[in-house]
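As a warm-up, study this chain.
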Amino acid sequence: MSDEEHQFESKADAGASKTYPQQAGTIRKNGYIVIKNRPCKVVEVSTSKTGKHGHAKCHFVAIDIFNGKKLEDIVPSSHNCDVPHVNRVDYQLIDISEDGFVKSTVPANWLSNVSKLFFHLDCQIKDGFGEGKDLVVSVMAAMGEEQICALKDVGPK
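Now compare it with the structure written out below.
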């Protein structure tokens, strides 16, 4: 055997999928769907009847959960659609950096850098933090992205 050490560079993840398949006819309003490779929340679903060529079609109108853009898709109701794994977690806000990232505690009392501030909450978070309020932020994560999506004031520090 040789005495040299082998170093392995890990460039792979655990293999967990960022989405799972679900039949289009079973996706409902307020559910999630992937449209144009973006995680979206469904705001409207309409189903057409079967026509001359067989399949009933589902028309989805959805809002991108990270940038707020409205997207639409039409899928046969018997076909599978990708549905993102969406997680929402609350963190206590510790600090805000100058470049717009926040430091927060995770449940095991570790410090974590969370992604940039959500565009419509930017001023509210900075103002509340500047006033010395104790803030809890909700972070939504899906398909490798995460973003602060809600804010709760739990009182003064």
